[in-house]
Amino acid sequence: MSIQITQLVKSYGLWLCLLVVALPVYAEPLVVGHISFVKGSNAAQQPGEAPRILGKDTEIFQGDNIQTTERSFVIVEFTDGAKITVRPNSNFSIDHYDSQSAHKTAQLVLHQGGVNTSTGDIAQGNPENFQIKTPTSTVKPKSEKAEFTVRICDKDCEEKGKEAAANAVRTEQSVVARVVDIKGVVSAINRADKNAKERPLSLGKPLYNSDAIYSEKDSYALLVFPDGEKVTLQADSELDIKQYNYQIKDKKDQILLRLTTGGLRALTGSIGKNAHDAFALDTPVATIGIRGTGTDSYTDGTSLDHSTWQGLSFLHNEAGEFDVPEGNSSSTSGQNGIPQIYPTPPNAPQPSEPRPDTNKSDPKKVFEEKPPAKGDTLVKSTSGNTAVENNKGEKTTVNEGESSSANSNGDVVTSDQSNDATPENNPSNNGSSFDDADNSLEGCTI
């Protein structure tokens, strides 16, 4: 018998070797991180394998699906230094995580619930290589170091959102304008906040009282206000929103703007139409008032060129008050200069930026409260900037201090988060999203 086996090996030894070589090799899954903190009952599972209960220092692998239960959460520390809190009642997958090769990438999927994220080395090399997908969008950092929250709204979130929208009341901290058309580089910074950072503006971005808006060369922004006021800030210009009150309890409706330098094209809304003295556009040379009108104004800080293309406007400075009727222009030098008023020449050069009355945005729709619906993706940027790309490939930047929601139709709405009361913003948590906090998803607020 042994002779027959020996002969068999001699005859078929090569084929046996080839067969052994051809057998699949099942490598251990790649370790991509570990659990640094755990609360409650949580598990991770590889495809086709039994779930693993998660405890402190448990290894996390590429391909893991992590699920948390009510009032339970885990913090995952990844090999590149990134940290992700998988919040209660969440379903989260690590599809791909490579922090070792030359092309470092992280592809994560949030199926349900929410995660708090702090990026690591992968995002430092190329922020777009770190991404979290949801059913409605893809979320990526836009800064080399960023912290942001991603959540998927549930039924309770939808109901609470509708209730909040129905009870919404305008305050002086409310959004006072939104960008409805933009070209080039335009930014804003809030002068009332000494710690405020400059915010790049894009379509749909909100503006607030005390915001200063700057446009660069070959750039402009067209803004719409809740009362229907529309203004186009021209290139190389600076505009301050000094005060905007509209439908605020116990406050008189008012709009006060200051054009420090550059040009502005303005179309009156209901505030100026209902009370002419409630609108004023201040410049270093004179204050511009309106009586239901559309105007173009330009100042270099020492002189002012102004024209009225609709209605009637007037200039007020130390020399007095001077009307500029429709179809007329004026030139003024110095704060006590008497304006030269003359019919606007038919062939007078026109600004290249669009006149605000050409924009047909409906203020009611622009400022309509749109509560999140079940399945919407909610994103909050707490440090650095974040990009939200909808399923149509359209991108929106969520600047530090802003929140956004993306729905299944591809609509992305950005808002301020200053009144956010989520646990990670609670002062008792020292501003950290990565501690033993009550990481509740109640109401799916962000």
Secondary-structure topology with pairs:
Blueprint: H1 2-22, E1 31-39, E2 42-45, E3 52-53, E4 59-61, E5 65-68, E6 73-78, E7 83-86, E8 91-98, E9 105-112, E10 114-118, H2 121-125, E11 130-133, E12 137-141, E13 147-152, H3 155-166, E14 177-183, E15 186-190, E16 199-200, E17 206-207, E18 211-215, E19 220-224, E20 230-233, E21 238-245, E22 254-267, H4 270-274, E23 279-282, E24 287-290, E25 294-299, E26 303-310, E27 312-317, E28 320-325, E29 328-333, E30 340-343, H5 363-366, E31 377-383, E32 386-390, E33 395-398, E34 402-406, E35 412-416
Parallel strand pairs: 9-11, 22-23
Antiparallel strand pairs: 1-4, 1-6, 2-3, 2-5, 5-8, 6-7, 7-10, 8-9, 10-13, 11-12, 12-32, 13-31, 14-17, 14-19, 15-16, 15-18, 18-21, 19-20, 20-22, 21-22, 22-25, 23-24, 24-27, 25-26, 26-29, 27-28, 29-30, 31-34, 32-33, 34-35
Summarize, please.
The protein is mainly beta and 446 residues long.
What does this structure look like?
- With 446 residues, the protein is mainly beta.
- The protein has 2 domains: 31-163 and 372-444, Jelly Rolls (Sandwich), CATH 2.60.120.1440; 172-365, Sandwich (Jelly Rolls), CATH 2.60.120.1440.
- Helix content is 11%, strand content 43%.
- The chain has 5 helices and 35 strands.
- The strands form 3 sheets. The protein has a 17-stranded mixed sheet that branches. A 9-stranded antiparallel sheet has the order 4-1-6-7-10-13-31-34-35, with no helix packed on it. A 9-stranded mixed sheet has the order 3-2-5-8-9-11-12-32-33, with no helix packed on it.
